[in-house]
Amino acid sequence: MDTIASLFSFITTPVSWVIVQFHKMYGAIFGPDTGWAWGLSIVSLVILIRICLIPLFVKQIKSTRAMQTLQPEMKKIQERYKNDKQRQSEEMMKLYKETGTNPLSSCLPILAQSPFFFALYHVLNGIATGKTIGVINDSLLASARQAHIFGAPLAAKFTDSSDKVAQLGATLTDVRVVTAIMIVLMSASQFYTQRQLMTKNVDTTVKTPFMQQQKMLMYVFPVMFAVFGINFPVGVLVYWLTTNVWTMGQQMYVIHNNPTPGSKAQAAYLERLTKHVTNHGKARKRSERTIIKAIVAKGRDRNEFERKFINGLSKAGLAAQTDGSVVQSDAAVATQTEDGTPTTGTPAAPKRQQPKRQTKSQRQTGGTKPAGETTSLSKSDEPEDAKPASAAKKPAQQPGSGTRSKAQSGQRKGPQRPKSPSKK
Q1: What DSSP designation does 98 have?
Q2: What SS3 class is residue 132?
Q3: Structure confidence at residue 6 as a pLDDT band (50, 70, 90)
Q4: CA torsion angle for 297, 298, 300, 302 (degrees, to 10)?
């Protein structure tokens, strides 16, 4: 570890300078030789670094989601060229280039803060061995060696001997209890961060080896932190525990406000968004309009949760617009239907109804009368002079005749079998 830390010695001076500046501020409040002053200086260093790494964190989220989307295509390439590794690599690189994704982008935050981590380790190791390093002079070195966090010296390790711990003014029991608790908290926070990512913020419709790999890392990383943690000074454990807690909170915020499409977190978010929009009649936040705009733009490619969201707005008399806004359905100029086809705010035409099936008697009498027209069993009261002339000239047919000159509508041609008189 000392060899690795020496490789990042070029950043040791800036890191030590930042710690000293924070120590001056907290030393004026808690005292310069207290563990609070030095411990909060390390915590503030972590917060400052993580704030600077927020753009890389956003890029990491986009890269991780893009990699999840590409997993089916990558699996096809692996199966197609499973006997040609070179061609497989070329097709993979071509796919990354066409989609603009970079597999290393998901590791950028860890890689970016690695120099600061090893530089801090180098500074604390110098405090433990009594060597001045960076801008930490002899007076600051003496103050840091006197600082204790819950009874454990800032530069003490879990594996230190009792004699070395006694030189720092502490007991071996205090050091091991404090470091053990911090290692457990560090591993637990790492496990919870990875677990909430796998259980809430992963597209459940995609089952690929990438998901199995992430699930394996959920158990590997905490074990790695536990193994390496026993060789970290207390100050480094403070640094790593703080950065884990920051990552956990940052990820919880992203899952709550910008979840991965197709995940359980998106289903919960869209359910909350539906209630919020229906209560207020519009999307008030910019982030909400951005997500609604993305859902509307998908059209037919919407997943189950997004279609449910659009249908929920429709039932509430609302319609999502292409710019992410939400308006009343009757005032919408151009909304999107569930299948993505544009419609107008005018009411839709009524559906064409199928005609009812006529009975045999209705077919023989020439069909049913229009709705609203009643049928009377009595003779018509219309005067004879008002009847059409054609009706008056038409000869009456004799009952019981076997043939007819012209078949009525709905009857078959040819001789008809006489009807038997009904029995009364």
Answers
A1: H
A2: coil
A3: low
A4: -130
Mean pLDDT, rounded, for 150-174: 88
Q: What distance in Å separates the CA atoms of residue 344 and residue 338, rounded to the nearest whole number?
A: 14
- Tell whether the torsion through CA atoms of 43, 49, 51 and 55 is positive or negative: negative
Residue with the bigger pLDDT between 320 and 373: it is 320
What pLDDT is recorded for position 417?
Answer: 59
Please give the backbone phi and psi of residue 326, each rounded to the nearest 5 degrees, phi first. Answer: -125, 130
Token readout for 347 is 């009411």
Cα–Cα dist 256/276, whole Å: 14
What angle do the packed helices 54-80 and 209-229 form, to 10 degrees?
130
Q: What's the start-to-end Cα distance of the chain, in Å?
A: 114
Question: Per the structure block, which two tokens stand in for 219?
Answer: 């158990």
Residue 80 pLDDT exceeds 60: yes
Three-class SS of residue 333? Answer: coil
pLDDT tens digit string along 371-380?
444 444 444 4
Alpha carbon dihedral 66, 67, 71, 72, in 10-degree steps, equals: 10
pLDDT digits (tens, 9 = 90+) for 336-356: 444 444 444 444 445 555 566
Looking up tokens 């019981």 gives 400
- Rounded distance, CA 92 to CA 233, Å? 42
Q: What is the token pair recorded at 203? A: 């597209």
Mean pLDDT for the stretch of residues 259-273: 87
